[in-house]
Amino acid sequence: MKVLVWALIxxxxxxxxxxxxxxxxVVSAAPSAPVDQPPAAKPAxxxxxxxxxxxxxxxxxxxxxxxxxxxxxxxxxxDVDSPVRKGQLLARLDDRQLVAELEAAQHRVRSIQxxxxxxxxxxKVREVDLQRSEQxxxxxxxxxxxxxxxxxxxxxxxxxxxxxxENLMNAGSSLQVIELELEQTRISAPFNGVVARRYVxxxxxxxxxxxxxxxxxxxxxxxxxxxxxxxxRSLKVGDQVSLTPATGQGESTSAKVIHVSPVVDxxxxxxxxxALLGKQxxxxxxxxxxxxxxxxx
Length: 297
What we know:
Order of helices and strands: HEEEEEHHEEEEEHEEEE
Radius of gyration: 51 Å
Helix content: 25-40%
Strand content: 25-35%
Shape: elongated
Low-confidence stretches: 1-36, 38-45
Largest sheet: 6 strands, antiparallel, barrel
Distance between the termini: 106 Å
């Protein structure tokens, strides 16, 4: 009897537990609304810092004056640091042999010219003779044989005149050759400038092509330098750049950009720039300058 009572109590408990524990529905959470994010700020372009380049001071006109012929330096008229003008005589080579040849050639030209003048006069005489013979033939006074003879003499005289004129041209050409050789013994300045170096001494024998002087201009100085590609974009013809001596001693001066290369050197990534210095610059050819480019954004 007790066993039955406990069995009923256990069954009733199980029934109560099943009715009081219903399944709880699972509710999914709604997705949260997206939060608006501010747009990413673009990185600000920082200005390029000042760039300092190095470059040589050069001139467009600088030249080694060489001898155009073999000879002996007979006279030196300038020395190092001498200012010179275009066409000014710098030195002379011994020209005594050429002067003698020149005088002989001039005499020959004058002699042949006299022969030409003589034959020209002779042609005029022959022409008159022929005209007179032809008129006399019409009048029945002269024979045809004499007319033919005078015509032959006129033709022969004209040939002689032509031959002497050719001789005169040849003599004139020979005279010009000697004058040119004589001119080559005079060493002249090719442009305005200064003698930067002298290679020879008086009495020294030189050959054609030997260097005698180094002449350089002192005006229209230029500075050549290279800048990285990013700096070249801010440079244009007409811009001013500041120059100071590479030694750090001396006042600064300005130069105007006259050329910015349109080509980037692929090996170095740089661009060549040329700037023209003012006339009052204290720089000299061959010096090295520091070129200061301004800051750019």
